[in-house]
Structure formats: structure tokens, C-alpha cells
Amino acid sequence: MKTKMKFRIISFAIILISSFFQNAYAGFPVEKGNWMISPMYSHYSARNYWNNLKVTTPYTRGGSFTSNYFGLYGVFGIEKNINFVFNVPYIIQSYTDSVSYAKTASMGDATVGIAYYFKNDNPYKHVSLTGSLIIPLYQNAVLTTTSTTVTPPYAGFQTLGIEAKLCFSGTNIEVLKYTYYDVEGGLRQYLASSGPTQGFFNATFGVPLNNDWKLAGTISGVTSSSGNSSLITSTTSTVNKDYGYLRFTLAAGYNISPGASIWGNIFTDVSGRSIGEGSGFSIFAVFKF
């Protein structure tokens, strides 16, 4: 496989990772005038990839892809049923094999949006609709590496986008008492001529072990498609926009105080198409004030 093609296939294994680390708090509204801030760090690595037939193959020449993600996610309560949400990422990605090396470090795709919570007489259940704008904070470029000029692992599609997400969440009171759930699905459209258009979902189920500890499991997936599905070999071509993956995450959280908690999780890719097969871990904190 040519080096440029490898980068396009693996580049987006980590791009959407931040949206899957909100299983500890996503779906629940923040009260008017209050903040919720969550800094996070995630590490992801892959030595194999799924081709377009969903067959797993090792990267050639012992290749390895690594991504380190730093993010700041936040929510502010504008009204009782309206929240302002944002996420700002910084990404360090690299690919190396026996003859080549490439690395990028840059801001990623920031998101800003409004979450509307539909009126509900049951305080333990919430239905919300979130609309967001995706803003690229970087400039994709071709880098000259130690071996040759290659297409680096890009930080994103470098184009504006919009996103709509519907979420249903709640806490069980009668059956499976005090367990909680969060199910969301949505569409994301990048505003370039070739898109892509993406569908995504997350399904989380959490269990409190006691007053301080919680466990949660999440199944999440993304499918991305574009009007231009071919992998072009030109150094100025767009990145791969046709791929998909399914991921499983297991998380544990500890309440430090009523307004602060810390979480850690591990995750692994379960299946995919035209993307890296990898695993990783993340840590993040949640502060409410």
C-alpha cells in the first residue's frame, strides 16, 4: 500500500474520539447560570487497518499510527432548558515504519452549539436536540519527512461543518435502581463539495457501585460517506472520507466532591472499514460550578 493511502485510512481513527468520552455526563442539562467543564486526554494506537472489504491487515513495513488527543469540553446553562456547548481539541498524530516517519501537531475541529431540552414532567428523564457548528482550527499541509514527502496524518477535513444530534437519557428509579443510560444519534455534514456526510451513535449504560464510584460501558459507531469515494494519490488530494467503525468503551469514575469527579476508560475498535484497527485509553475530569 502506498504511504499516502495509509495515512488517509488511519487519519480519522481519533478525530471523533472526544464525542465518546462524555458518557459520564452527556444528556443531562446544566442549570441556568452554571458551568460544567471537562478537560481530557486520550491516547490511541494502531498497527493494523481494515480495508474497504472490512478485512484486517497489518500496516506494511511494521507501520504504527499513534494519536494523542487533548480536549476541553464545556457546557453553560443559558436557560433552564437551553445549554451552550463547546469542545476545543489539540491533536498530536504520527505514523512510522521502517523507512518513513511523519508527524503533525495542531488544533483540531472545534465545535460550538446549542442544546435544547424538551419539557418533561419526569426529572429523571431528558430528551434533547443539539445543533452545532464545526470549525477547523488548523491548516492541512504536506510535510517533508526523513525519508520522502508524504501526506501526513491530517487533523481533519479542513472545512466547516454542521451537526444535529438527538439524545435520550435518564436515571432508573424503580427497575435497576439508580443505573443510568444515555442514547444519542445524529448526522454531521461537512460543507465541502465532496462532504463527507456522517452518521453516528452512542449508547451508554452506567452502574453506581456506591456513593462515590461508577462504572459505564459505551457502544459507539460512525459511518462516513462522500460523493468522491476514491482514494486519490495526488499530494494535494483530499483525505479519505469514506469509512466506518464500531467501538466499545469501558469507563470508571470517582466522585471527588459534589462538584468534581475524575474518570478513566479503555476502548477498542470492534469492526471497521477503510480505517485503522486500534485501542487506547483516556482520562478526564468533570467540574461543575
Write the layout of secondary structure elements.
Layout lengths: L2 H8 L24 E16 L5 E3 L5 E16 L2 E15 L4 E7 L1 E9 L7 E12 L6 E2 L4 E2 L10 E11 L8 E11 L6 E12 L4 E13 L17 E15 L2 E14 L1 E14 L1
Antiparallel strand pairs: 1-2, 1-3, 1-16, 3-4, 4-5, 4-6, 6-7, 7-10, 8-9, 10-11, 11-12, 12-13, 13-14, 14-15, 15-16
Describe the sheet with the most strands: 12 strands, antiparallel, barrel
Secondary structural class: mainly beta
Q: How do the SSEs run, as a string of H and E?
A: HEEEEEEEEEEEEEEEE
CATH architecture: Beta Barrel
Spatial ordering of strands, largest sheet: 1-3-4-6-7-10-11-12-13-14-15-16
Predict the CATH topology: Lipocalin
Quick one: how many beta strands? 16
Head-to-tail CA distance between termini: 51 Å
Spatial extent as radius of gyration: 19 Å
Question: Explain this structure to me?
Answer:
The chain has 289 residues and is mainly beta. The protein has one domain (3-288): Lipocalin, CATH 2.40.128.130. Helix content is 3%, strand content 60%. It is built from one helix and 16 strands. It has one helix at 3-10; strands spanning 35-50, 56-58, 64-79, 82-96, 101-107, 109-117, 125-136, 143-144, 149-150, 161-171, 180-190, 197-208, 213-225, 243-257, 260-273, 275-288. The protein has a twelve-stranded antiparallel barrel. A hairpin with a 7-residue loop joins strand 6 and strand 7 (125-136). The longest helix has 8 residues, at 3-10. The chain starts with a helix and ends with a strand.
